[in-house]
Specification:
Layout lengths: L13 H8 L7 H38 L8 E5 L3 E8 L12 H9 L2 E4 L6 H15 L13 H14 L11 H15 L8 H11 L3 E4 L3 H9 L3 H15 L3 H12 L3 H7 L3 H4 L2 H22 L4 E8 L9 H7 L8
Parallel strand pairs: 2-5, 3-4, 3-5
Antiparallel strand pairs: 1-2
Length: 339
């Protein structure tokens, strides 16, 4: 799953503010003044970071719009004597009326005897595994609540996003920050008219099932979500607050990303998605993209030992940028044909 967030890092003085918030009404004036100063410093730092982030995003957006792709979603191929691997980028949620199919994609799907996705998220076993994972690693089990990790400023940012989505705070209070971020981002995407049932994987899976094709996966649910769940609390909070910032931008950013994907503009996708500055921090970038790409390359190389044809369909962000699956394969000496 890909979350379109521009997270902020290094901005909060969370520990100090949390302690200040727990103070009693008769706290010494010096303590109240210190808390006010800390809050003002945090607000100023966040405002400055937002301006920097906005400038970086606008520059990346302008460069992405100026670049051009092939006019259809990018498709690569990797071959040896008895194996063909097609590799395509996907978008997990799309507007139902979007036309994105191409002759090259149709041919790759027709030729493939096995379709490879990021992870199994549709089988009954996968749904059970997801429920167990979220229960243990996505929800608080120690009596804490989400807002116990947030400063007053962060609570205010979160509330703005909740108001925008029409969601009560109580609905996400039991969630850990990373899981709350994912839920808010997906809810925003769906409210803007993007439908998971129109996503590329859903379309390909339905056709592959009808044709009796086999399925394989690059990672388990634990591997896919475990990196986010394993981030320290402060990084999770940065991820959450960055997600709330992107929610206020509405569908414009999402539509630009999809248009870059439909056009096959790999450079543009790399600028907007496979970029630590856009995702917000090296830690989140690593959890969402880089470390997963590195793991996948080994598994893709191993597929060359198995005769046949496979279509590997993964989020478009994994196939763009300097740490992409494509770049990593080429760095290891493999000849990957494509845009």
């Amino acid at each position: 799953m890909c979350v379109f967030s521009r997270c902020l890092t290094g901005l909060a003085t969370c520990t100090f503010l949390a302690l200040a918030a727990c103070g009693q009404g008769d706290a010494p004036a010096a303590e109240k003044q210190a808390a006010s100063v800390a809050e003002a410093q945090e607000a100023a730092a966040r405002a400055e970071a937002l301006e920097t982030q906005k400038a970086a995003y606008e520059a990346a957006l302008a460069e992405a719009k100026a670049s051009r792709g092939t006019g259809e979603p990018a498709l690569w191929s990797l071959r040896d004597e008895d194996t063909t691997l097609y590799i395509m980028g996907t978008v997990h949620l799309l507007r139902p009326d979007l036309e994105w199919r191409s002759d090259a994609i149709d041919t790759a799907l027709e030729e493939a005897d096995t379709v490879v996705f990021e992870a199994d998220v549709t089988s009954q076993q996968a749904k059970s595994e997801m429920m167990r994972f979220i229960s243990s690693k996505g929800m608080f089990t120690d009596g804490r609540q989400l807002t116990s990790l947030l400063s007053d400023l962060e609570k205010a940012e979160l509330q703005k996003a909740l108001d925008h989505l029409g969601l009560p705070l109580g609905a996400i209070q039991p969630m850990k920050p990373w899981w709350a971020a994912v839920n808010l981002s997906v809810m925003q995407i769906q409210q803007e008219g993007f439908d998971p049932n129109s996503g590329v994987e859903k379309v390909i899976e339905a056709e592959a099932l009808a044709d009796g094709k086999s399925f394989a996966y690059l990672e388990t649910i634990d591997e896919q979500l475990g990196r986010l769940a394993g981030m320290p609390d402060d990084e999770q909070v940065d991820f959450l607050i960055g997600s709330t910032e992107s929610i206020k931008e509405g569908a414009d950013v999402l539509d630009v990303l999809v248009s870059e994907w439909v056009d096959g503009d790999v450079h543009g996708i790399g600028l907007l998605m496979a970029n630590p500055d856009m995702i917000g921090s090296d830690e989140v970038y690593d959890a969402l993209l880089k470390s997963r790409n590195e793991d996948w390359v080994g598994k893709i190389k191993a597929m060359l030992d198995e005769p046949g044809t496979r279509l590997i369909a993964v989020g478009a962000g994994h196939l763009a940028g300097e740490d992409s699956v494509i770049e990593l394969l080429e760095q290891e000496g493999y000849e990957v044909s494509g845009p």
